[in-house]
Amino acid sequence: MRILGIETSCDDTSVALFDSESGVAANLVSSQVDLHGHFGGVVPELASRAHLVNLLPLVDFLLDGQEVGLKDLDGVAVTAGPGLIGALLVGLSTGKALCMAADLPLVGIHHIEGHILANGLTAEMVLPAVVLVVSGGHTEIVHMSGIGAYERLGATLDDAAGEAFDKTAKLLGLPYPGGPHIDRLAGRGTPGRFRFPRPLLQESRTVFSFSGLKTAVRQIVDGLPRPLTEQDQADVAWELQEAIVDCLCHRLFQAARRRKTPAVYLAGGVAANGRLRARVTEEAARQGLHFVPPQPVFCTDNAAMIAYAGWHHLRAGHSDPLSLDSFSRAPLSSWK
What we know:
This protein has about 325 residues and is an alpha/beta fold. It folds into two domains: about 1-115 and about 300-315, Nucleotidyltransferase, domain 5 (2-Layer Sandwich); about 125-295, ATPase, nucleotide binding domain (Nucleotidyltransferase, domain 5, 2-Layer Sandwich). It has helices at about 35, 45-65, 85-100, 110-115, 160-170, 180-185, 210-220, 230-260, 275-285, 305-315, and strands at about 1-5, 15-20, 25-30, 75-80, 105-110, 130-135, 140-145, 150-155, 265. It has a five-stranded mixed beta sheet, sandwiched between helices. The protein has a four-stranded mixed beta sheet with strand order 8-7-6-9, with helices on both faces. A hairpin with a 3-residue loop joins β2 (about 15-20) and β3. The longest helix is centred in the C-terminal third of the chain and has 30 residues, at about 230-260.
């Protein structure tokens, strides 16, 4: 079974081809970093317009490169949401048009399910499991009893962890997107120079909060002499990263103990963070839990995870009508 995947939930235009016999045949991404970097963040209207320009040529390039025609496909999977509604509409409308032209089944994929199932592109998933979904827009814990069976155990009460990384990077004068720069700088940081709070660690609920942490970082950075030195940036980055990773790991393994799952997973853009991957690897080994980190290329937004999720839907006999709507917000729900 060959599935075309389309992902346009934010600022990356991505298409992929998943073959159930050989895996990911191709995964192409057209980045908009240079377009939005000038503004220090994603401008929704500009993102939508860039998707309009980039998507169909990217689909043509993918299919030509793989010597595959529309009639050779078994379905089209496209991100239906959540995300930027204008960006989502470009991808969903394109997917519908391709399905109508070639009489193919359409599958609308929840963006979070795509990120979770991206773990299956790296290694076969051990289930049931607890998954930490962490990105610029999401920070939540999901219990996954099987493919298509999800239960959200808790989420952030305010800001996402990825946003805290990006906002701190902006305060430090680092380029957009800030998360990878924080990760690299933290490796040269001095432990103990600063101390940031670890919000809600004593809270029994499965919740996160990062707004107070952002405020604490701003207060420290505003009090530093100007211009900031690279060591100042590195020391702030080190402590911020430790604070965020402490909170994320605490909640992930707390949930795993409560649900008595044999495995834990990471999903989303922040799952590419080196310190988070290392800490989860260490703690999972200590507690005897299965953990294989997803490949970094499948952590950020990509169409391979959407195509792979679409394959799971289609082989279970699940598809969507061409009247399917996109959505900017909605929790992940079970479909199987």
